[in-house]
Write a sequence for this structure.
């Protein structure tokens, strides 16, 4: 099937002192996105959070019918550029995040972040949402939770620092490393509890 796409370093945060090098994904037969989906299923089944991958609107152009009981889509177009990969609600807070993967060992190429995604993240931040990027360094087998404002600032100031990739040491110092575990595999909500919400009760913050 043919899918056609439409044309279309100031902030400092404490590093995670308890982070440890995560286990490898090798020989598990699943990719980074699959493990995020699996983690979201775990959170949903346990009644912890409701978080889903966002569907991308697709316009079907051509369909073949090899037999009456089956139809095969042979050509389709994405109607619009997608925003971010996931959204949902946790402890009364709106979560919105993007999942990115890179084979680079020393940096994360910011060309992986698109203008419409940066715009969307800024809009969500203005509404008080918890917005972030999960970055998987596949060669290093390391996963990081990076607050979106760090990425936004870096991308919007490329004309100043002239860098097209965010260095790994910056991600280590401004983000939070996630240790890979069994259930859930990508325990990103633990980062939100420990470093973003800082143990504060959501009800108390609204009082």
């Amino acid at each position: 099937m043919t899918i056609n796409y439409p044309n279309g370093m100031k902030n400092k945060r404490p590093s995670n002192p308890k982070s440890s090098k995560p286990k490898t994904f090798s020989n598990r037969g699943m990719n980074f996105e699959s493990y995020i989906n699996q983690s979201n299923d775990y959170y949903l089944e346990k009644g912890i959070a409701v978080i889903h991958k966002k569907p991308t609107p697709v316009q079907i152009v051509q369909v073949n019918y090899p037999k009456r009981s089956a139809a095969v889509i042979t050509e389709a177009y994405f109607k619009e550029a997608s925003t971010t990969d996931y959204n949902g609600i946790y402890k009364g807070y709106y979560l919105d995040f993007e999942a990115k993967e890179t084979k680079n060992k020393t940096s994360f190429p910011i060309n992986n972040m698109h203008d419409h995604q940066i715009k969307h993240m800024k809009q969500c931040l203005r509404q008080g949402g918890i917005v972030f990027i999960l970055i998987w360094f596949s060669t290093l087998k390391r996963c990081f939770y990076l607050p979106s404002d760090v990425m936004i600032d870096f991308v919007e100031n490329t004309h100043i620092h002239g860098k097209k990739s965010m260095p790994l040491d910056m991600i280590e110092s401004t983000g939070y490393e996630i240790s890979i575990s069994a259930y859930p595999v990508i325990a990103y909500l633990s980062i939100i509890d420990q470093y973003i919400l800082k143990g504060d009760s959501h009800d108390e913050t609204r009082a």
Notes: Residues 32-45 form the longest helix (14 residues).
